[in-house]
Amino acid sequence: MVKLIVRDRESIQEAVRRFRKLVERSGIKKEMRRREYYEKPSETKRRQRLRAERRDRRTRLLAGG
After folding, report:
1. Coil, strand, or helix at residue 40?
2. Could you report the per-residue pLDDT of 15-54, keeping only the tens digit for each?
């Protein structure tokens, strides 16, 4: 959970800007997008496997070249 304490003499715009940065850094936005629609467990595993394959391919290219 993100908590924001408004500073003395801080404008609303500045407080909102700081709040948005905190939310972005905490990963709440990313998590909301991920949970927006139901994803079957098989789709989750497939997506993770594809990410791992891409990561392995990238490390092999960097190590070999």
Report:
1. coil
2. 999 999 999 999 999 999 999 999 999 999 999 999 999 9
pTM of the model: 0.57
Q: How far is CA 62 from each of CA 2, 11, 55, 56, 65, rounded to the nearest angstrom?
A: 38, 48, 11, 10, 5
Whether the Cβ atoms of residue 6 and residue 15 lie closer than 8 Å to each other: yes
- Per-residue tokens: 17: 């800007």
Asked whether 29 and 5 are in contact (CB, 8 A), the reply is: no
Of 42, 2, 58, 4, the closest CA to residue 25 belongs to 2
Contact (Cβ atoms closer than 8 angstroms) between residue 19 and residue 4: yes
Q: Which amino acid is at 30?
A: K
